[in-house]
Amino acid sequence: MDDALFPKGVKRCPLPEFLMKLGPVVALLIWGVVAMLMCWIKGLNQTNMNDAYGFAAWIWADLTVIALGGGAFFTGFLRYLIGKEKLKNIINFAVLIGFICYSSALLILAIDIGQPLRGWFIFWHANVHSMLTEVAFCLTCYFGVLTIEYLPLVLENRQIDRVPFFHNLTHHMHEVMPLFAATGAFLSFFHQGSLGGVAGVLFGRPFAFREGLFIWPWTFFLFTWSAAAYGPCFTIMLAKITEKVTGKRLIKDDVYDLLAKIAGWMMATYIVAKIIDTWYWATVTAPARGMTFMQFYSNNPLYGIWILILEIVIGGVIPAAILLTRKGRNTPFALMTAVVLGVIGVCVNRWVMVLQTLAVPVLPFEGWPMYYPSWQEVATTLLPVAYGIILVAFSYRYLPVFPQEAELNPIVSEPAAPPAPAPDTDAEPADAELSPAQA
Amino acid sequence: MKHEQAKKYGMVIDLDKCTGCGACMVACMAENNVPFKEDETNKLDSITWMRVYQLTNGKPFPDTDICYLPRPCMHCEGDHGHSPCVSVCPATATDYSMDTGIVSQIYTRCFGCRYCMAACPYHARYFNWWDPVWPNGMEKYLNPNVSPRMRGVVEKCSFCYHRYQLAKDRAFMEGRRELEEEEYQTACTQACPAGAIVFGDLNNKTHRVHQIVQPDPAHAGRPKNPKAFRLLERLGTNPKVYYLSSREWVRRSGDHYLPHEGPGGGH
Ligand code: SF4
Ligand code: SF4
């Protein structure tokens, strides 16, 4: 029915089946939209946030998707600036995931603020001393960069590409892509870092506060570093899940291997830095404020020392160790375990930096307030997940997201449609990258 | 025209005198048009610019002792006006005044990100989770000098800044620049039946607050009075609200101390 829109040389399921499969996801999306409208119309009393938890599930989700979306800037950085050519086979997917993550983050922020119509005040009345201002500026600019990076992929749709203007535009955009990749890496360095700074500068919150370099607390650097380490893990994890769902191999193993190896090194170095940071905080920073390490991990029903072990050992040391060995990277189960653990590790890190920071009682005569999200918060947090699945599904169906797909899945059993080049366009290399402009 | 000397308005609350009656809380709510809910039992989402805490020494009878501690906004100066909350607000919706030392809140500019709440260790900031609803007829009794707040913004104690403005206006009309001590007093100070709250200019040696606290400018305003202390002194928030207590355990309840740190340790 919609075959004419498919990328060249690949097979897709019939449209009704495709739409049917997306049914439950659309239901999830609608649930999220209802909750979002309730929050906008009735206000944030629809959440379980309160004056002790001014930041909660949404800010956690924000910080997390931005860290996970870090795969886009870091893969772009490796491909265009370091020259890891092989990564061109996963960069489209990384950009797509980044685009989804960042658009989700902006949407969640728009729901999270008490007066959404005043959201622009952050730009208009900007306080240059606030880490959140830096986040807002860099995040918005970087979302623009991601859109520019995603656009050529949309234009490479088989039908759009037939229009000479779009074909040439795509070509030229690819030519300047290294510039955008560099801009993206620069912006990402700052907003990922500033998100770490958001917690690290809170000198009234001894759990989060860190010393640092000039105006930047150590969390600034740790957040950027962890996004570069864990973002690619998320990209790999989702690519593997996409392969499972589609029942096809979409990316060659050597591409995974390279990205996983780099992520492994980033993670290993990050986790060493994180351990040193934690050690210094526990032995110097917190005691200087009269607080002992165990004060942050006791006398409450949830936050025990287990959470630190989950974050650093299970979500950091173990996946890094797996990814650093060739055997670990090349064993599908081990690779999947490592990236999943890594994703858990970074999710836990962002959780504690937001929620445990607020949970730890600072006034000595106060107790630990506890929090669980309301259904409206859960639904609005799942909304971007549903939207992400839909965008990945449509992009996969109609856009050449995976340049190696045709090569890895040759169409053999269809005598009616031999894999001959279409007569109306130039034959394109399988990796659909930098195709020559039409004469 | 001669420039006025910068003020540093602050407060000292004598915890030996405070009976925990809550008159300061009531006066504050009425003075500042603070909205309330039908059911105020959940203190985590109700607004109390001034909140009275109950502290106990945790000892069994007959050594049990309690103390009431009223907590307004501390109007933290931080390091040269770098208050925990002011420095983080992305929209410059809260500000530290170098002229008065008052941390203001601009309701019409605040867009409700709540970062300042995360930054304040004293829980002095409150979010308007609901639009204010006044019982029938009560809107006629609202204070015309204080703007009510809408849903979705943060509010907090302003040291009754509108009273400062009124007092300044009056003084100006009378051809004066400086205010007398009693010309500008907060509602809680005046309402306290025990006279536990003393308010004034910490920079002015003739003001009682200065005389009681004896702030040490060389040490970020730390009190020289051995009975005086500030909440969470060690965080470096540099608050302008001081407390007085003759009881050692009360003074130590104001901050965290490591097990080996004896009384007064860590400062
Ligand atoms: S007590 Fe809280 S709200 Fe008041 S100035 Fe200090 S940090 Fe800001
Ligand atoms: S909630 Fe309002 S005052 Fe507080 S940081 Fe955000 S914009 Fe500033």
Written overview of the protein:
The complex is a heterodimer of chains A (439) and B (267). Chain A is mainly alpha-helical and 439 residues long. Chain A has one domain: Formate dehydrogenase/DMSO reductase domain (Formate dehydrogenase/DMSO reductase fold), CATH 1.20.1630. Helices cover 66% and strands 1% of the residues of chain A. Chain A has helices at 15-42, 57-68, 70-81, 88-112, 121-124, 131-155, 164-200, 218-246, 253-288, 305-324, 326-330, 332-359, 375-398, 405-408; strands at 212-213, 216-217. In chain A, strands 1-2 form a two-stranded antiparallel ribbon. In chain A, helix 2 runs antiparallel to helix 12 (332-359), helix 4 crosses helix 6 and helix 6 packs antiparallel against helix 7. With 267 residues, chain B is an alpha+beta fold. Chain B has a single domain (9-252), classed as Alpha-Beta Plaits (2-Layer Sandwich). Chain B contains seven helices and twelve strands. A four-stranded mixed beta sheet of chain B has the order 8-1-12-11. In chain B, strand 4 (94-96) and strand 5 (103-105) form a beta hairpin. The model of chain B has no long low-confidence stretch (mean pLDDT 94). The chains are: A mainly alpha (439), B alpha+beta (267). The interface between A and B is large, with 50 and 56 residues. Bound molecules: iron/sulfur cluster (2 copies). One iron/sulfur cluster is lined by residues 88-89, 91, 93-94, 110-116, 154 of chain B.
